Amino acid sequence: KRGGGDSWQLSLGKAACILTGASRGFGRSLALLLAPRLETGSVLIPVARSQGGLAELEAELRCSFPSLKVHSVQADLSTEDGLQLVLRAVQDKLSGAADLERLLVINNAGSIGDISKSFLDFTSPAEVNSYFAFNVTSALCLTSSILKAFPGHPGLCKTVVNISSLCALKPFKTWTLYCTGKASRDMMFQVLALENPEVRVLSYAPGPLDTEMQQLARTKSGDPEVREQLLRMKQSGQLLDCSVSAQKLVTLLLQDTFASGAHIDFYEI
Ligand SMILES: NC(=O)c1ccc[n+]([C@@H]2O[C@H](COP(=O)([O-])OP(=O)(O)OC[C@H]3O[C@@H](n4cnc5c(N)ncnc54)[C@H](OP(=O)(O)O)[C@@H]3O)[C@@H](O)[C@H]2O)c1
């Protein structure tokens, strides 16, 4: 069913979609752009910590896409309890979903970490472990547990998306945790692609987005040059609207021609 050249699908079929970090920013925009591409009977499970953000998204989705089943899960993915909460909800909500054509897991939730510090300041293993528990471990364990819980059937297309960053490839001063986390995730998902050729895996770098994370980046970065560069980007209108970047990801998923495991950047396509 994979589209080639210009002949891409208009729909992702009857799908179960788990999307982390859906309460705001890129994840929220992505949820709203994915919804019209999911056929009747599809289930969307948005995950985040903030009840308010999730409730608002859920209300908007229910109003615009009444045939979509939306079950948001309020969970903190930096804790094991939070992870278990999501896994239980996924089992619960998907056990009754028949004839699914696609399982779509989108690892979007993330944090930038303490970017005021230089490499030499990271002497506390607890601080470092806590960053990686959320940004690396939870994405690995959530994805593996979901794939394991749905061994699948012929005709079920499994797609895993890792929301990556230029920082997976290029170092930035004072962004030790963020760059390392994003590089680890890219590699982790390349191994998934290699081991499981039947799973379609994509690391998508969404470009510089006008979100809360970007605001933190331009105000809290310890390196003045990084701060100034990000401030210039904001002031000169170079930050991307989340919807513009999310639409590109949706198109990549509909086309479904990417090499599994690839890192694809917004500006490449
Ligand atoms: N912004 C950029 O310029 C940029 C550039 C490249 C890549 N990215 C990547 O794009 C993705 C989205 O970024 P964004 O800019 O939209 O970030 P954002 O505005 O900070 O949103 C982050 C999302 O993750 C959720 N989240 C944070 N901590 C969580 C936790 N412990 N458990 C569960 N959910 C949690 C947040 O919801 P709650 O607070 O409600 O939990 C929110 O929905 C991230 O992976 C980021 O690294 C961003």
UniProtKB/TrEMBL annotation:
GO annotations under biological process? nitric oxide biosynthetic process; tetrahydrobiopterin biosynthetic process
Places the protein is found? Cytoplasm
- GO terms assigned for molecular function: sepiapterin reductase (NADP+) activity
**Main location group:** cytoplasm
Q: Where is the signal peptide?
A: none
Enzyme Commission code(s) on record:
1.1.1.153
Q: Which UniProt keywords apply?
A: Cytoplasm, NADP, Oxidoreductase
Output the InterPro entries linked to this UniProt entry.
Answer: Biopterin_syn/organic_redct (IPR051721), NAD(P)-bd_dom_sf (IPR036291), SDR_fam (IPR002347), Sepiapterin_red (IPR006393)
- Gene Ontology cellular component? cytosol; nucleoplasm
Taxonomy, superkingdom: Eukaryota
- Any Pfam family: adh_short
Q: How does it assemble?
A: Homodimer.
Name the family: Belongs to the sepiapterin reductase family.
Q: Supply the name of the protein.
A: Sepiapterin reductase
